[in-house]
Amino acid sequence: MKAVRLSRKTRETDIALELDPAGGAVEISTGIGFFDHMLTAFAVHGGFGLRVRVQGDLEVDGHHTVEDTGIVLGRAFAEALADKSGIARFGSFYIPMDEALAFAAVDVSGRPFLEFRAAFSQAVCGQYDVCLTEEFFRAFAANAAVTLHVRVEYGKNAHHEVEAVFKACAHALRLALAPKEGLLSTKGVL
């Protein structure tokens, strides 16, 4: 694994991102406070160094900012993992957040797929539309080329439900990226 620096500029967003899967500083600024909180939790719980700066068309809404951040973060993970050798490949984790429980399972497989099952209790947390959580993880999984399954088992508070999802995904990824000798594939390639 290696540290990666990426940027992406469109008519809707301008993103600069630095990822170090081995750890480091965490500095997040997207213009959406709750999303900053989620990305910070993701980095801290995954043990990742992550710096993200996003200027998005928030006068429209948060969709482009959140989705495009998922695209760039996914691409950074894909680049950092290169041939996917030397990692455990699979990881899964449950996170309880007060009354909420979320689960995530990941396969760093080279095959992008997202299965997302969550009925959030409220539609908005701060300035963040909770439906964007699925958009973020869809963009992330597609661009990281990972298979990701996410479930919110239950909950009553959308803040807790969404935060549990981000933390569960972070811990699942942390486990999948744990050192393991060779390439975990019967095919010999991913």
Automatic annotation (TrEMBL):
CDD domains: IGPD (cd07914). It comes from Hydrogeniiclostridium mannosilyticum. Gene3D superfamilies: Imidazole glycerol phosphate dehydratase, domain 1. One of its GO terms (biological process) is L-histidine biosynthetic process. Pathway: Amino-acid biosynthesis; L-histidine biosynthesis; L-histidine from 5-phospho-alpha-D-ribose 1-diphosphate: step 6/9. It comes from the Bacteria. Belongs to the imidazoleglycerol-phosphate dehydratase family. It is found in: Cytoplasm. GO terms for molecular function: imidazoleglycerol-phosphate dehydratase activity. This is Imidazoleglycerol-phosphate dehydratase. The gene is hisB. It holds the Pfam family IGPD. Keywords: Amino-acid biosynthesis, Cytoplasm, Histidine biosynthesis, Lyase. It catalyses: D-erythro-1-(imidazol-4-yl)glycerol 3-phosphate = 3-(imidazol-4-yl)-2-oxopropyl phosphate + H2O. Its EC number is 4.2.1.19. Its main location: cytoplasm. One of its GO terms (cellular component) is cytoplasm.
